Amino acid sequence: MKISQYASMAVASMVLLSMAAGCKDGDSNTNADANPDPQVNPVVGTWRLTRTTVDGVALVIGDYEMILTIHSDGTYVLFENGLETDAGTWSTQDNSATITSRGGEVTSSSYGVSDSTLTMTSTEDGYLWTNEFTRE
After folding, report:
1. How big is the CA angle at 109 (ends 103 and 113), to the nearest 5 degrees?
2. Could you give the C-alpha distances from 70 to 31, 58, 60, 90, in angstroms and in order?
3. 50-61 tens-digit pLDDT
4. Residue 25 phi/psi, 5° resolution?
């Protein structure tokens, strides 16, 4: 499978998880007070897609490039092959993230950050998407 065939589904699932940041006291977070320090808020920053699987099957990324920038003010911007393709807002609660794209689509996902890797998992149209990003 080629990543470009599934880019729209991948965008939704990748953005979902990448919107996650640490929650203050484990409560819901609108991220207005989010800390940009990666030691405190590990998802704030710029991330490059390095691996995508759908139901455990790896997609071929090839020369497709996805860059996700997560801002501490609760906003994000997504670039595909150098072009801005999405932007919006995010919030978190526990290990779940909720994003709202500029088109008004609201989605949620789970996430994890380990060292310089952000892993996002979501279900889109019945498929389990797992996306890995590396910090830039």
Report:
1. 120
2. 11, 25, 25, 9
3. 999 999 999 999
4. 55, 25
